[in-house]
Amino acid sequence: AVRKQLHAIAADLFAQRMETTRPPTVEQLALLAQHQQGADRAQAAAATYRRAGDLSEAQTAVSEAYRCYERCCELLGDAADVDLLLALGRTANDAGHFEKAEPALERALAEARTQGDVARQARALYELAQTARRHAKWPRCVELAREGLALVSEKDNPVLSARLHGQLGWALGYILGQNQEGLPASERAVALLEGTAHRSELASAYS
Length: 207
What we know:
By secondary structure, the chain is mostly helical. Helices cover 80% and strands 0% of the residues. Helix 7 packs antiparallel against helix 8 and helix 8 (138-149) runs antiparallel to helix 9.
């Protein structure tokens, strides 16, 4: 009980200090979340870990982002939402924790299907295709990319559509040697992004 009270005092002090100073760092947010968790404030801790994860990912500190998202998901359990599960799977992939990525992304896909959320289904399928690619499961990568393309709107989400076309083109053309299908997919990825502000995405599509 005493330890919980000390964590609560520390959490309150940290929260007050962060309100009156410059934007908090990832380290400050993570420390605040630890104290909130120690004080049995699970919801507050989860929200703080998520904030730390978002900030870490924005700074391309993917390993730290993954750890924060993982802790957030652990605290929320079944209440973890689709976007959080997608973030966990995405950063697990980027940080090299491939064995952790797939379960989170499969759960995100299942939740999105239950909710009838087509856009998030397509995002989950793209991230799962990324996971398959990193495991060199090329037929599975192709299957997932095609499933995602059947759901995503090129007009509403040209970036995600281009990414999926790029996945398909790479797997079919460069890896499986099926250039008749792979080349048009790669060309479509480029066409969707040419003349847009998405220059880094266009560079990826060209590569």
